[in-house]
Design brief:
- By secondary structure, the chain is mostly helical.
- It is built from five helices and no strands.
- The mean pLDDT is about 90.
């Protein structure tokens, strides 16, 4: 599985920002009220993934430390092993979350592109701008947490690879 390309995330976010700006420009008066709490689920997901990344990185580091090494007589006390399927599922979750974050970052940025210049002339623009800013920040936080979780799931090189005697694909 290949890692998420940051360029792809940027293309998704910029494309959706422009598309959302066009849609909001045409139908801003038809949109429902943008409450400040609308983007909060993105923040909750970002927090959950950041905590998951931190926990997984610590567990994988403990698992690596307990492996026997040439200079050590016995392994360190056993840490709870990490299931390989759990790591695979977390990689898929991280990659999907990165794209979801890019989609929402683009949408909230598109809203901001319309509401910020209209702050003085539209009465709903200040509240919608606050919601858009919070949404963009939380969506970017989700992207960051997802990329951190994806990075925590990387398989470190084996001892054979470190010595240069491992098989090459």
């Amino acid at each position: 599985m290949s890692p998420v390309r940051r360029r792809d995330l940027l293309v998704v976010a910029v494309g959706l920002a422009l598309g959302t700006w066009l849609l909001v420009r045409v139908g801003y008066g038809l949109l429902p009220r943008m409450d400040w709490w609308l983007p909060v689920p993105l923040g909750v997901l970002a927090l959950a993934e950041a905590l998951g990344a931190r926990t997984l990185a610590a567990r994988l580091a403990a698992e690596r430390d307990r492996r026997p090494r040439p200079g050590r007589s016995s392994p360190v006390a056993a840490a709870r092993p990490v299931e390989p399927m759990l790591v695979a599922r977390l990689v898929v979750l991280a990659q999907a979350s990165a794209y979801v974050g890019a989609v929402f970052a683009g949408c909230w940025a598109g809203l901001l592109l319309y509401t910020v210049p209209a702050l003085g002339r539209l009465s709903a623009a200040p509240g919608d701008s606050v919601t858009g800013l919070l949404g963009a920040v939380l969506a970017i936080a989700l992207i960051g947490a997802a990329l951190w979780l994806e990075n925590a799931c990387k398989v470190p090189p084996s001892q054979d690879d470190e010595r240069g005697t491992g098989a090459r694909a």
